[in-house]
Fold this sequence. Notes:
Number of domains: 2
Structural class: mainly alpha
Helix content: over 70%
Low-confidence stretches: 62-82
Oligomer: single chain
Number of helices: 5
Radius of gyration: 31 Å
Amino acid sequence: MTLLDKLADPNLLEQMTTSEKLSASFQATVLGMGITFAALIIIWGLTVLLKNVVLSIEGKKDSGVKVVNTPQKKTEKVSEVVEEEVTDDEELIAVISAAIASSMETSVRNIVVKNIVRVNDDTPTWGKVARIDQVNSRLY
């Protein structure tokens, strides 16, 4: 009978010495931590595998922007997409200008937008959620 079996039985537990109890407790701890780390490694591997599958599926989709040895019709479609993006940028500049003018309590004519640069938000998810909760607590 192993130490772990003795540790599981309350009658045998009373008969064990302190060193046997410590040894069995150490074995149980190592076994539990080993199983936990093995499970985490399996979950990590599955996550990486799933990420690669999703990226390969998304990579197969046609973006519609690439123009390589295509007929004239597809080139026209690409130019239409580029024109729509420019229009969206103009609308975006108008919206940003209006928001700035509103926050500064001035007219849009007094604001000149020279350059707009998108800034990546590296805030962790928990930080974003905390900000949303703080804003919502002030609104209600």
